[in-house]
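Regression report. Comparing outputs from two consecutive submissions.

Submission 1:
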Amino acid sequence: MSQLNLKKHHIVVIGAGFGGIDFVNHLKHRDVQITLIDKRNHHLFQPLLYQVASASLAPSEIAWPVRHLFRNRKDVRTLMAEVVDIDKILRKVILSSGDCILYDSLVIATGATHTYFGNDNWAPYAQSLKTLEDATKIRSKILTAFEKAEHSKDDKLKDALQTFVVVGGGATGVEVAGTIAELAHNTLKKDFRFLDTTKTKVLLIEAGPRILPMFPESLSRYTTKSLERLGVKVLTNSPVTNCDSEGVVFNGERLMTFNIIWAAGVKASPAAVWLGAESDWAGRVIVDSYLNVPGFPEIFVIGDTASVKMSDGSDVPDIAPAAKQGGEYVANVITRKLKKKPHLKPFKYNHQGNFTTIGRSLAVIDLGFIKLRGGVAWWIWKLAHIYFLVGIRSRLSVAISLVWNHTFGYRSSRIIVEDTQEKEGAESN
């Protein structure tokens, strides 16, 4: 069993997401000691999380134990622990256990979570999608709703069980709405004897004037039409004003449903609170052009936790490529600093485009100079995501699953593993 070499420059990394993992990978064969801390034991490929929620992929296909990823790196220690505070002066990370981890350099890559915009009382009724736990809960909730509808003799209750509302018209909302519609209208239609799954209603509700606001308007319109052809009702300019055990309220109207999925917004981790640092409207730490906390050159913040501006003044998007680029940049900064080489130029984000899948053989891609839609975009989306998965086995497994699902419409992960019995009274009659 190897021990920490305290004589080496000690770097503490908080968060085993895209940014944290990429940072550690780019410090291989450097004369440093790294402690990687995450409250979960796995790295999650979040762009495919909705595929787990919709029963297309198994959790193990998009998540990998952090310890396994760095099993051959003697310079890396991994800790499954929860950070609760940071002492910038004494340079120590404080864990919920009371233990403290000292650092010479600190990299915070703790990502973001969902937000209900001050309506946290909606949380029990509107399930978010940010973690594996969330995905399996949604999967079980969706599948259980159909099982209950099969038993129900009450038409009103059956209709509520077969009504799915996705709140938020960003990429996640579009992907979830499209895949639920395909699941209900195609995959499940032969599975039940007393239930017509093609009568399932899927609503995508967006408060703004259009869905996919980060895409050009032409691709947004194409996405809306594509979703409608799949059986999704797209409602824009429709802010949700309440979620409860009886359903959802928007535009002054109540819709009875037991299936609300929240994809409307995110907020950063509490890193700004730990640091006592200035933050933006989403709680992201405002960093300088070198991704440092101002006044503390040994502390770096990357990914969804950091507020970084592009050359045009807009925010660097909260997507995986941005986190990965931040991780690589900070790794190079620290390497040059230890070698007493001149400082790197300020961080510059290289936008590689926006990708969103709508359904089987349906996707949109915005690369700036070129815009793609339909089947071609879907294949490019699929290949790009498979490429960025960890390990050859995962790439092969996901590729086979996606091709099989595309060809035959079969979703092999339709397993209910949790008790999703609704307290609201959604039990079958």
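Submission 2:
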Amino acid sequence: MTGVQTCALPIYMSSETQKILTTGGIPLEESLKKVEKRNKIKAFLLVSPLLFFLIIAYISPIVGLLFTSIDDRMVTNMLPKTFKAMKQWDGKDLPSEEVFEAFYQDYKILVEEKRHGKLSTQMNYEKNGFKSILKKLARKMKKFEEGNYKEQIMAVHKRWADVEYWRALKRRAPTYTYSKYLKGVDMYENEEGKIVEVPEERRIYKILWLRTLEIAFFVTLFCFLMAYPIAHLLATLPMKYSNLLMICVLLPFWTSLLVRTASWMILLQQQGIVNDVFVWIGLVADNNRPEMMYNKTGTYVAMTQILLPFMVLPLYSVMKTISPSLMRAGKSLGGTPFITFWKIYFPLTIPGIGAGCLLVFIIAVGYYITPELVGGASGTLISNQIAYQMKSTLDWSFASAMGLMLLTGVLVVYWVYNKLVGIDNIKFG
């Protein structure tokens, strides 16, 4: 008689706990936890080089910028006795003899150690004219007699009798301060602890921030208007023509940024090729050539051409995936070419539009070389001011503060875009 044979599989169970055991006598649950833990360790070890690189290349510089922007220990360490004596000063009138004496003692040490130049540079950031009176004091203080330091210091220069200079010195007393961030938006904290705006004739940074946003916005808009038809041609033309057009689009990537900018300087100058063409076709008179250099016009033209590929490529990657049958279906249902494009084609390209606009805007906000060369006084951006503070004035703390403010602005733009559109709806390729 044929019967069904059954195989009995060995089941290992604890008589006490009734838990399933492995062949080694270890509870299955515990064994799975150990395997999972080992897999997590392996995964972490695999990504640890990338994590280390991110910490070194990205996180550490940002932390360093943050610390530098609020660190004000240099002046505090140079004048310890002065700031200790200033704790009792209300800032309304000139400091007492005690403060003048403490300042003399601190500054004398700095002069002997030849470190007074750093102090004069730092204090000049706080108030213009501080550098000259400190240098003059360094030359004259050798002749000082002991005692009556207040009168002797004020006799060196009349500015030492101006309470504003001593107030500026007191503002540098805190070891850590957020004054650089206030300065970046044309504000400061007065002696009463209130945050107020600087005088109107000294307000420059708000103008730079607004100009940066304005130029970045219009460059993004111009790039979109030019890139959309180019990307459409790339997606719809036959392969051989599409490849040729793609080479033309990618050509700026193969040329140095400095060379491209210098080329626009040659083209856009008053006696340049562009103005020559305008005169030749009769658009402008020879004696009335438009100025397209060292202003916003030059910045717009050069930056649009340089950043155009960053808009074309995301759009092309999305348009390439759109089936032509969708447009034919729309026309067969009675839609006009414009209605078909607006109702069917354009909504499908929104992920590419979002990616391109976000990419171009973020790059344009932090652009430096092109605005520096072709922008002039009216076409420079906040990045140019950051570079100036780092290279010319050597005010690294202020440059760090503005750099972090720029980074924060970019993150805010990213956050707003994510809330309104959704970062998942963009497509880079």
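Expected: both submissions complete independently.
Actual: both completed, but the second showed a warning that disappeared on reload.
Relevant detail on submission 2: Strands lie at 187-189, 195-197.
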